[in-house]
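Loading example: each entry is read as two labelled lines plus one structure line.
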Amino acid sequence: MLTNEKINDLRRRVLNNEPLDEAEYAEAVRQMVSERISQIVSPAPKATRKATTKPIANLDALLPK
Amino acid sequence: MEPHNREFPRVITASLREAFNSCHKKFEWSQVVGLAPKTTSIHLTAGKAYAAALEAYRSIYFTESSLSEAERYDKAVAQGFIALVRTYGAEDPPPEEKKQFDRVVAAYVEHLVRYPPATEHAKPHLLGRGVEFSFAFEVADLKHPTTGDPLLYGGRLDQLAEYNSALFIFDDKTTSGIGPQWRRQWDLRSQFTGYTVGMQLSGYPVVGAIIRGMAILKEECKTAEALTYRPQWMVERWKTRLIWDLKRMIDAWNTGYFPHTGEESGACYDYGICPFATLCMTETPEKYIDVYFDYSRWDPVEREHKK
């Protein structure tokens, strides 16, 4: 995963007018795009409310006796 | 107030007109006197950086036909990121601000994810040199109050876009939130009617505007798109009112009276607080000018602040 450290390192090099490897910047953006797509496709599970009902083993258990 | 290089703008833009109509005094401070706050708004910085990224990326992706699609994409997204960095700069805002550098980068990435260039539905209309367009036209029968030259209305737009076989203004907007009413606010927005007029007068049969919004939030970015038309009756109404507005601007210049109309319009507290509120809250604003402001006027032609 592209870290904030890495992004800020790329930032620093631009601002310091260091010679830039365009491919490196392209790769960084591609990686961020790819990570974002992964987040959209498989989002982290949200915290769920505590269950208020007990699960049952099978539906037959609901039939009147 | 002692005159300090007071000037009447030579080119009226949508922003100047908005400033005048929201508060005459704000217009005077920013344009006539030529004051700019010493501290830059993070909203402006973030917006400019995002816009710079998209302009660089689109200018390369949609014009460098000698490269393969993959080469174009790589070059475009790299240069977009570099333009973003250069425009945002080295200074980070206080930690409580949402529009930190990494969030603006996230907004750029979100744009690339949600609107991949290969499947872009609003294709840039190109002039052969980049995607940006600018225009200026003379406002009929109105002269600059000091030079006597024709008064100009001008603007610069992110791009023209082809969509559904028609030509649209295309504009990117950054925002702090996108709610259910976000799309509707552009239906009467003067900025886009003005752009429509400018581009029609330049020979481009623009029919409306597509506005793509990006909300830069702390944990996520949200995007939405609005499409709004500009029928001819709205265009004509805009032209009539432009003359009325400019006559009032010239009248204010000639009388020297720029009243605090923000006190009714609510402009004092738009986008947080007006940057000139400090001057309006005192009987002796001249004592505070040098403390909080620089003499620096935005030049829409050169696209830079000029001292």
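The radius of gyration of chain B is 20 Å.
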